[in-house]
Design brief:
This protein has four helices and no strands. The protein is mainly α. About 6% of the residues have low confidence.
Length: 117
């Protein structure tokens, strides 16, 4: 009985030590937060540069996508969790993007070519 209890404690200690290897400490979360703040600062600065007006939307969308994936990977812990959680998150996200692109094509692009005339 005592051996079983000691083995269970050893297993729990090993599991906690193993979990600690995969998760960041608070300092790394602060670094990730600073990176997100810097990207946000770049987004705001780009908005006020008149020479970048032609590429404003693609650049801002790209930077926003980068911030989105950083938040998802680190603050939602998808980087550290099992792959099934990533699939549960990214699968519907991909489907939603397909639906949005389909709606844009259906209502904005195809009518310009007289498809529905």
């Amino acid at each position: 009985m005592a051996d079983h209890h000691a083995t269970a404690e050893h297993h729990d200690a090993h599991a906690h030590a193993h979990d600690g290897e995969h998760h960041f400490g608070w300092k790394k979360y602060v670094v990730v937060g600073v990176i997100l703040a810097l990207i946000t600062g770049v987004e705001v600065a780009i908005f006020y540069v008149p020479a970048l007006a032609g590429v404003l939307v693609p650049v801002l969308l790209t930077l926003s996508a980068v911030k989105f994936f950083i938040v998802v990977l680190f603050f939602m812990h998808l980087k550290f969790d099992d792959a099934v959680f990533s699939r549960v998150f990214y699968g519907p996200l991909f489907l939603a993007l397909l639906v949005v692109m389909g709606m844009i094509a259906l209502f904005k692009i195809l009518p310009k070519y007289g498809v529905f005339s």
